[in-house]
Fold this sequence. Notes:
Blueprint: H1 2-22, H2 34-42, H3 53-57, E1 64-73, H4 78-94, E2 100-110, E3 115-123, H5 125-136, H6 140-150, E4 153-163, E5 178-186, H7 191-201, E6 211-219, E7 224-231, H8 234-244, H9 250-257, E8 261-271
Antiparallel strand pairs: 1-3, 1-4, 2-3, 2-8, 4-6, 5-7, 5-8, 6-7
Keywords: Autophagy, Mitochondrion, Transit peptide
Domain NIPSNAP: 179-276
Protein name: Nipsnap homolog 1 (C. elegans)
Amino acid sequence: xxxxxSLHILKRHQHFLNKVHSTGLARGFANTSDExxxxxxxxxxxxxxxxxxxxxxxxxxxxxxxxxxxxxxKPECMEAYNKMSDEVxxxxxxxxxxxxxxxGSWNTWYGEQDQAVHLWRYSGGYPALxxxxxxxxxxxxxxAFRKERSKMLISRHNQxxxxxxxxNEPVPRSGPNIYELRTYQLVPGTMIEWGNNWxxxxxxxxxxxxxxGGFFTQIGELYVVHHLWxxxxxxxxxxxRNTAWLKEGWDVNVHYTMPLIQKMESRIMIPMxxxxxx
Length: 278
């Protein structure tokens, strides 16, 4: 029985190959191995696009630009750094002339230690960012803050981000919560495919209101994606993630997106006292 079935499969395979050659399709495989052209037949593909992925993936109804800052703080200065950041951010929020707002501020709990992470939103895109920087550069109190802050830092870097159109809009939330920032360095050229898959997958991660925001870089390290999640605690995080695997379709998303990733990182973060995301 098994032999008859094997012969049947071989005959079907031979019939397919004969059809390929008779229709001239074999020319497309002339310079590839059997493994290569078979993989090309069954691989998950995304149609070629003729527009920047920033235009295809970001929200059209808003012109928000985001900035994420990573500050590595001297361990002995962390408390003073947090206090000073609190005072400056409150002052900026009270001044309506600045077209920016802090979405969230955190200290890393697990991941890179003695680190502060800040997420800013500029309502109005690049013009708002330029206007804000111009005003800050003439704000003597802010310049004094930057000078004092520099004494507390070991290193710092930032990125400019856009938000994915299919992700939740980041809004203030009450706590207490812990936050996970999952960062993915993608293979160059795969951002559209990542977006296509996650536009379907995000529905599997909404039941516990854990999805906070999804972003991709425009300036800084390129082809970097940040997913921000909120959980009650680490146990809740584990249970929520385990539940996703019980839903039909989640495994498919993981299967197709894992090959797109060059590197990934997870930070567990605790909100600072003044953070709108608690």
